[in-house]
């Protein structure tokens, strides 16, 4: 009996030691995360240049058709140089294939300009880590070019791939602006450019698109530059909330253990140098907006997308008292009033939001009003994080919502229909 007690005590001591070590590692990791340099490395992961030693001048090496994708350089307003790939829409490529396979020194630029005049274009803003040659990203270019019949411009942000500089929230927004200006300089009309962001790219997309809206309000000479729309694939509401909900590999919680010490979590967040607060800016967008998120997204919970969509409804719903977050101890009268308000909000929400199902894909929630463009949340049952945009059901919905299956002239005429 004494031997069993001794073994049990030894086991408990070892278990305590292991937990103490793990706790110390966790505290050290959280403390390390408050260092700006470390934050930059963890958020952007721009030094993970996957695939290694990529040959950006040979897109064909990454399963793209000969001369269908062109390696281009884009210059930002703060003197950084971005590497990017411009992929031709499949119909354009097939109709010009013979000429593309016998290129001249000036033909690349001519083909790009011609493609921009005859097909819609997607400005694709990718997530963190990797480069424009990453397999899953190449699959997006291929799918958009084929199924959406659109050109695709995919820049590597500063510090990514063969682009110069170091990433930052302001810097990535400037990169998106530079890519937009590159398209505009070659003849692309704003209403024929669809901005698509994935993961980190959704934060960049919202920051950049809201900047376009602000320019219009201030009377900027480019005030007419409103994109055809914005698509957010697996977005987050802001970095603050993401830290609370993020699980590394879908298993290891990032800041969830600190929920029992909320003041410590708030203290740690004060050191954030990159916030990408999409929630604060997304409501200011007045262009057709599609939010797509999968239930089986292990990286960013789909509750982030629900929060972004619901933000558009808040101004149309009666506000709830702040005490609803902690109802313990309130009077019966207050509790009854809050319950009644909640019921009114739910009823009004059902009137404002049109809900439908796409068989074997997911649920669609749509909202629009006289004063703003259509906002849609496509909540898919599967698709994961980086591949939800590759679902053909999602691509078909993008094509339908933004009239991507029509030619350039028709697109210009049907913009109002796609924005209703």
From TrEMBL:
The chain crosses the membrane at residues 18-38. GO terms for cellular component: endoplasmic reticulum membrane. GO terms for molecular function: monoacylglycerol lipase activity; phosphatidylcholine lysophospholipase activity. Keywords: Hydrolase, Membrane, Transmembrane, Transmembrane helix. Residues 122-349 form the AB hydrolase-1 domain. One of its GO terms (biological process) is phosphatidylserine catabolic process. The keyword Nucleus does not apply. PANTHER family: ALPHA/BETA HYDROLASE DOMAIN-CONTAINING PROTEIN (PTHR12277), FI04476P (PTHR12277:SF194). This is Alpha/Beta hydrolase protein. It comes from Multifurca ochricompacta.
